[in-house]
Design a protein that fits this description.
This protein is mainly α. It contains 14 helices and 2 strands; from the N terminus they run αααααααααααααββα. The protein is globular, with a radius of gyration of 24 Å. The two termini are 38 Å apart. Keywords: Cell membrane, Membrane, Transmembrane, Transmembrane helix, Transport.
């Protein structure tokens, strides 16, 4: 069937809009990558940077040679990997009983948990609670306070509710208890939504820095984003890298760009492996139930 003129115009506008949106999202990464690989003269040049005209790896060498950066990388990797795994386990243990109609007062418990999405005690009570729990200057402060994110747990609960009851009932006839049903039947069927929630959680942990500012004073326990914030926003790069001058130009701009790329690359590497589950898991987990 031949498309009308109006449909062709609409498709052209839609394609142009999507191409413009993709360009607006991709270009900043290209710009930062180009600046990070450029020398001091090119990195401070105004205008667009699509590729490095004079490749200079000095800034990258400075970044990867700093002990603070590797401290931050290790702590960020710890909170991302351990925090994501523990969050998936904890969310599954909370979401599964809330998805079963046999749980007494299920709606009440769900409303209590939902309440925490919209209201919190505030910054000062949270700080006092963390202090009383002896989590100050502990790496576990990155993981325990946000162990069960409410929104993600509700998405997982909705997905569990969409699984046919007959599948579980057949397992119970064979003598399986709740834990066995969850581990051997429910979780394997939930791989798409679990992969999506794992990606959300991992990105959240990797990008987090505010809790490090509040609760951590030992620099060896700080996360990578904390040092990235110091270098890029607070201009503390001279304290970390020293003042490196070539002629009348400095490497400050390219060092900042290299630090940003160093912090972004791990997530960019991991995302393609989970991307195939992302759309499917989000749609199923949020629409069914």
């Amino acid at each position: 069937m031949k498309s009308s003129v109006g449909e062709n115009i609409f498709q052209f506008i839609l394609i142009a809009f999507i191409c413009g949106l993709c360009t607006a999202m991709i270009y900043p990464f290209i710009h930062i990558a180009s600046v990070s690989l450029s020398g001091p003269a090119e990195s401070t040049r105004m205008g667009f940077h699509l590729y490095p005209k004079d490749i200079d790896l000095f800034s990258w060498k400075q970044v990867v040679s700093q002990q603070k950066i590797w401290w931050g990388f290790g702590n960020s990797a710890f909170r991302t990997v351990v925090g994501t795994l523990l969050t998936l386990v904890a969310m599954s243990m909370v979401a599964y009983p809330l998805s079963r109609k046999t749980l007494p007062h299920r709606s009440f418990y769900t409303m209590i948990i939902l309440f925490t999405m919209f209201f919190s005690g505030g910054l000062i009570p949270s700080y006092l609670l963390i202090k009383e729990l002896h989590l100050m200057d502990s790496r576990w402060v990155y993981i325990i306070p946000g162990l069960v994110p409410t929104f993600s747990m509700l998405v997982l609960r909705n997905f569990f509710m969409s699984i046919p009851q007959e599948v579980e009932e057949s397992a119970r006839i064979d003598g399986a208890n709740d834990i066995r049903v969850l581990v051997t039947i429910v979780l394997p069927l939930s791989k798409p939504v679990l992969a999506t929630l794992a990606l959300w959680t991992a990105v959240g942990h990797w990008n987090a820095w505010f809790d490090a500012v509040l609760y951590i004073s030992d620099q060896s326990k700080q996360v990578l984003q904390f040092f990235l914030r110091e270098i890029v926003i607070l201009n503390a790069d001279k304290e970390t890298f020293g003042s490196t001058v070539v002629g009348n130009y400095k490497y400050e701009t390219s060092i900042k760009a290299a630090t940003v790329m160093f912090a972004v690359l791990p997530i960019l590497i991991v995302y393609p492996f989970l991307q195939k589950y992302f759309v499917k898991g989000t749609m199923i987990g949020s629409l069914k139930g």
